[in-house]
Amino acid sequence: MMEQLPSGLTWAEITEKFATGDLSITLNYVNRRAKKSLRNNGETESRKLWRLFVQKFDGDQITTVFKKNIRFGEDNLLEQKASDKLVGQINNVIAQF
Prior knowledge:
Blueprint: H1 11-17, E1 23-32, H2 36-40, E2 47-58, E3 61-70, H3 84-96
Antiparallel strand pairs: 1-2, 2-3
């Protein structure tokens, strides 16, 4: 069983803690399209966001147990401290396994 995460960690430190064990964490930096109502008016601007996935490896099966969009428009999320609210949500997922 994985230990609970303390608050005040950066995202890079959190991903290191998930390096061993049955759970893994993935952070992807993606483009997200504008809302359909804005696209209908001709606006094509997309925004950047981070997608957080916590997955469980069970033999040959991978199950996503938690996913969350993180609105942080910059590339350097790994250097930023994770919010206490998100760390609490991740700890709830860890407690289940």
